[in-house]
């Protein structure tokens, strides 16, 4: 599904290297977690995967379902099945959440050469997905993320993911700002989307999220590289010992 080879990335127009040779393989159907300190490069990796501007790949390659991801624009990556759930979802005043969802879903379908959904079809899809995430209909009428709590913003992101049905889901610190109840609801929504044809890359600081979204593999980031990989027991080890043991360690 995703293969990252010797990826080096710096901030554009600056001599600031962030990723320094990332190697990572994510097979179809698996959930992998990336853990690491602040500033280790975790979020930068998610931004580069999604095609966010401001970063320059100086070396390496990224293959997504066998295709060169770096040759694709951000909208092409989304249409191909890549979805990024942001740590801090942006607010869009004046645009109702339902309007945004319909426009995004139909834009994706149009890019893929599919017919746009009619209103009844769309409403049924949203209703079913919203019920799964305990999202009330009045929330869907409000401007996207404006005045939303942390939990509501994350549920709205997972709702988008449920509607888009991506092949690769990148979750950038989805647990950030969530209380325990919201964390359970969001995690249930994510787990509901797990299947043999969909892969997930879950980025987090804390092991607690991985109690609910249990990963197949865990990768530790330090100084812009993967320095250790293992099963979910590695996350438990990190919870006990912290990241100091992995600083400066080569994979």
TrEMBL record:
SUPFAM superfamilies, A to Z: P-loop containing nucleoside triphosphate hydrolases (SSF52540)
Pfam family, one: ABC_tran
Keywords tagged on the record: ATP-binding, Nucleotide-binding
Keyword ATP-binding: yes
Highest rank taxon of the organism: Bacteria
Ranges of residues in domain ABC transporter: 2-248
Gene3D superfamilies, sorted: P-loop containing nucleotide triphosphate hydrolases
Keyword Nucleotide-binding part of the UniProt annotation: yes
Protein family according to the UniProt entry: Belongs to the ABC transporter superfamily. Ycf16 family.
Protein name according to UniProt: Fe-S cluster assembly ATPase SufC
Native source organism of the sequence: Maritalea mediterranea
């Amino acid at each position: 599904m995703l293969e990252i080879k010797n990826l080096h990335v710096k901030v554009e127009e600056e001599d600031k290297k962030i990723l320094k040779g990332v190697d990572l393989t994510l097979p179809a159907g698996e959930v992998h977690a990336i853990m690491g300190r602040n500033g280790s490069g975790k979020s930068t990796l998610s931004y580069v995967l999604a095609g966010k501007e401001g970063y320059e790949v100086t070396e390496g390659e990224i293959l997504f379902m066998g295709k060169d991801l770096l040759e694709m624009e951000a909208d092409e990556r989304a249409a191909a099945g890549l979805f990024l759930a942001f740590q801090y979802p942006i607010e869009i005043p004046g645009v109702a959440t339902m309007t945004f969802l319909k426009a995004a879903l139909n834009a994706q379908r149009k890019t893929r050469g599919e017919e746009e959904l009619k209103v009844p079809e769309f409403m049924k899809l949203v209703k079913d997905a919203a019920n799964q995430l305990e999202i009330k209909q009045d929330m869907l009428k409000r401007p996207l993320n404006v005045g939303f709590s942390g939990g509501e913003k994350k549920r709205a992101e997972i709702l988008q993911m449920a509607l888009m049905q991506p092949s690769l889901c990148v979750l950038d610190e989805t647990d950030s700002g969530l209380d325990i109840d919201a964390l359970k609801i969001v995690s249930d929504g994510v787990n509901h989307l797990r299947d043999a044809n969909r892969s997930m890359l879950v980025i987090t600081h804390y092991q607690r999220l991985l109690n609910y979204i249990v990963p197949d593999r865990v990768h530790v980031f330090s100084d812009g590289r993967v320095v250790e990989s293992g099963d979910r027991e590695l996350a438990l080890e990190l919870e006990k010992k912290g990241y100091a043991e992995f600083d400066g360690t080569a994979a």
